[in-house]
Amino acid sequence: MRFLFITALMLLAALTARPSAAQGAGRPQLELQCVSYGMGPMLECTAQLKRRDGSPLEGAQVTLGALMPSMPMAHTVKPMKAAPTGTPGHYRATLELEMLGVWAVEVDISGPARDKLARNLVVHECKGQDRCPATPAKPGQR
Fold it and tell me: Core-most of 37, 52, 95, 105, by most CB within 10 Å?
């Protein structure tokens, strides 16, 4: 009985001495806005990254890539380094896709935070020189 009590105290001390991910910095928050244009099509994305407290995540190295969830081994896009836009926490990159449809845009973050986040977007056809917003994919949409 004494062994269990001491073990429980040691476990409690270990858990309170080291903050968990939920108590610490937490995962970055991502707002992703993308527009498609041209042949291919091209997909220009702006990733807005925030810390858990809502402040902009500045000084990060951000890479954007994409794959088709319905055909991940057949259609993947070479990751591109995203550049800061001048607005704190905003990073932009352009991806050259192979076709229209649902794409999982992956945002790989390193620097003050380390994480990989993804959003499924529907890339639509645009007429002429128009730019079309990529819209969030619905669950199960391929």
Answer: 105
- Provide mean pLDDT across the span 122-130: 90
3-state secondary structure of 115: strand
* Strand, coil or helix: 18: coil
pLDDT digits (tens, 9 = 90+) for 10-55: 444 444 433 333 334 589 999 999 999 998 899 999 999 999 999 9
pTM here is 0.78
Q: Is residue 16 part of a domain?
A: no
Burial of 113 (0-12, 13-18, 19+ CB in 10 A): middle
Would residue 79 count as lying in a domain?
A: yes
The residue-averaged pLDDT of 57-85 equals 92
Distance CA 74, CA 8 (A): 51
Instruction: Report how many domains make up the chain.
Output: 1
Alpha carbon distances (Å) from 87 to 33, 60, 80, 93, 102? 14, 13, 19, 14, 28
Q: Which residues face 141 on adjacent strands? A: none
